[in-house]
Amino acid sequence: MLLCIPTVKLFGFQQRRTIRSLAKRFNFNGQSPTESQAQASLDKECIDFLPWLEKIAGSKITNTLSIGKSVHGRALFASKVIHAGDCILKVPFNAQITPDELPPDIRVSLTDEVGNIGKLAALLMIEKKTGQNSRWVPYISRLPQPTEMHSTIFWDEHELNMIRCSAVHKETVKQKVWIEKEFSLVAQAFTQHLPNVIEGPALENFMYAYALVGSRAWETSKGISLIPFADFMNHNGLSASIVLSDEDKQLSEVTADRNYNLGDEVLIRYGEFSNATLMLDFGFTLPYNIHDEVQIHMDVPNDDPLRHMKLGLLQSHYTRSVKDISIFHSSCDTFTIKEVKSSKGKGKGLPQSLRAFARLLCCTSSQELNDLSKEAEQNDGRLARLPFKDERREFEAHKVLTKGYLGPSQEMEESKCYFVSQRFAVRRQMARDLLFGELRVLKSAAEWLNYYCTTLYSAP
To answer: From CA 326, how far away is CA 62, in angstroms rounded?
Structure first.
């Protein structure tokens, strides 16, 4: 039985890796790299890694891939010609790291209040403390170091100010609080059974381990697991290659989605993730990300005389989206906007739930609200999903959205911070990628909204 394995996200959604990467060749003159050129780019620190892993697995992992270094860090490259459809690696379950390896006393102590990511992070802390006696030391020693991690949970206050106008800022704060909560539970278990593990900067070590697991672990039918070697593969959002879990054969595998020449970097898709997800969960961004999105929050004003009635209708008619892979928690007053491809009404425009909220906001009488509720009950139960029959009212409702909700933020365009260290330079570029992507989404939404309003009754 084959299962598609989504990557694990820090928020329990989907997720993957910590290195920004696009397809790169070893040489840049348009010629296919020679075998000697490919060998020159091998990661000399990992020459013994694959033989070690295959010894644990008791089987061959790959015949076509080698570990090398791209301009973006450690990666996997074609060691021979690969054809689309070729199975390029197979990692048996027994060569993967799962929370089941936690010592029994610790596993029993960590209740369901600690998620699988937290449990696997606790295991990493134990294995790192074990040092050279850990059977996973060849893998753990090759994981990114804290200085190489750029998830926003590691950003200081000055760096976070660069993205204050994005919802990622708030999500980062919430995520750090969640990690600290899980750490307190893990620390209690360690204090009772393995006190030496929490010597030194224990919270910082746990946060580092948590981020590693969150960005590298894969969901399986048994929970989550770290898949050595496979997690050296970098991300390409356009790739069709993904990690599959074969429960019958007890292994995870990857099939090539295209042809690769000798020396080509081999890439997979972690998921259809926006820069918000990539920077929060993986610590990288893409200069142009077709999956960028923006979360906006709308309120019923406190001075609205119908506020309580409107809030009641929102709660009673709210239905959560069945397919919601955004990093953002959805609710009846928050909305995720993706880039609108056409401003002329073609294709998907603004979310219907957002437009419905705007219609609700502009209602000025209890009779109008009762009519909306009755209309919802007569249809599919969703509130205010149909346009107002009065074009003037429909125009007024959509104009509400232009008042501070969908107007492009000047703060985004003018976010400028100047740093000198390499770490700050990387994070500044990540902030720019995020904010310019969100600005692009907002501008496209505003253009669609303006076009829609021009097609309605033009109010004086």
So the answer is: 34
